[in-house]
Predict the 3D structure of the following.
Amino acid sequence: MLNPKYLFCDEPNSGLDPQTSIVIDKLINDITQEYKTTTIMNTHDMNSVMEIGDHIVYMNQGEKEWEGTNKEIIYSDNQKLNEFIFASNFLQDAKNMRMIQETGEIPKDVHEDVRDALEEKFNADMDGDGVVGSPKE
């Protein structure tokens, strides 16, 4: 077969270090573009999903739970999706920072202390309470 329509990848980065995973993602993306093929990837590697995923389907217990793009994931309010993808505090913070960058607003579920620290850093009332940072006693 010289020009396949589909490339199926099952956990292509499983067990690889982050740097090698990036190389594999680039290779998959290059093959997809060069041969104008559709690539279907089954993965738990959220870095890959966010970097090269154009159309993403999140499956939970064999059922489609969410569908969209890697840009739309950031704004999803699907609780199961968010608990899976943004499970760590680090990734929750990364999601919140991306939302702030793109919307100029602090997401409502950000802890009050984090919200106040961000307001002080950017010297702006981002939550509409009329105070930059935490209220002074």
Observations:
- Helices lie at 18-34, 46-52, 79-85, 89-103, 112-122.
- Residues 88-137 form one domain.
- The mean pLDDT is 85.
